[in-house]
User: What shape does this take?
Amino acid sequence: MVCSKRLVENFQSIAKIGAKGAGITRLAFSDEDWQARTLIIKLMEEAGLGVIADAFGNIFGRREGLNPESSVVMLGSHMDSVPQGGNFDGVTGVLSAIEVLRCIHEEKIENSHPIEVAVFMAEESSRFGVATLGSKAFWGKLSPAQLKSYQDKQGISLAEALQERGLFPEKIGDGQQPSIKCFLELHIEQGKVLETKQVKLGVVEAIAAPSRFRVVMNGEADHSGATPMNMRLDALAAAAEVVLLVEKLAGDEASYGTVGTTGIIKAEPGVMNVIPGKVELGVDIRGICLESKGRVIEAFRSGLNAIAMRRKVGFELVTLTDEQPVALSKNLAELLSGLCQKLNYSSIVMPSGAGHDAMHFASHVPTGMLFIPCRQGISHNPAEYADIKDIAAGTEVLYEAVLKLAQADFRIAE
Ligand SMILES: [Zn+2]
Assistant: This one.
């Protein structure tokens, strides 16, 4: 049986790591992140799992199956956080998966397929500007060039961060991919749909993956007193137009669920008496409708060009990530919905606005996601909170699903 008390204790233990200041700060490969990883390994071992790590530091807790050669039923998530984030984003998926395996271990259930709990490193983009790095590495989607070019604010590259932790950037993509039967990720919703509709659980049908851009506007840094208004090349004024352009374009496509955000703005030299000569923006555009998102990106590119031309400033546009919206397995969604019903938990089928590690599995293996409501939809914030009753409900559904999926004769038709 899923043990709520044990789940609460594990949430409390992990909340102590990275709890300096407000909320939780466990940036990818930081000391806090590494301490949390160590704790998770201990919890995996207590659940009777054999733990291995890959070249990127992703960890896998494995319960052998009666037929060790058969494909793996994999479940998991991440445990890094944004700066001053919460203790539920990612952690809920990791701890619920470990709880499921702990129950199976204690109940000495005979599973035919091996079952693995995966914890992917560097899911949040806060440190290197790119999300879901661990699950990308797992599928060999990180090139040596990317490992060098992705850098944090201190100029430390992802490859260097890996080396500092004794990991092996040069071996990423070399490893033998295990044969995987399916992948399941439980996660907090990070929105308010479930809470508003007063539904216990969400079964995810598709993930709206982000496209992200770094925009640099290059004007001229001149004296703010001595330069007349008509002689300026103000990079920040141009950037302000770009910010509003993103908002307008995404707003025009709101009926498709497409959203656009400028979350980073850095003006140089950043003093009162100099006209900003250079401004960097970070832009994030997402949606579950590929066509709608494509229209926004195209109009963004041409609008950016028009603003720069009109204002006679230069610009650079770098695409950091360009993920496509991902459909999840219909059959796994049906299984999860059916189990919610069986256990008397209300559920709805819904899209995910946020990206998740699961999206990198969907094109390879049947993939499913289950959402837990979080209070007021707040996430990436110290106020992030999920009720243990909801977490336990999701964990029970996950447990039932894993028991079925780990049976040799349970096939997932596609
Ligand atoms: Zn997450």
User: Anything to note?
Assistant: DSSP finds eleven helices and 13 strands in the chain.
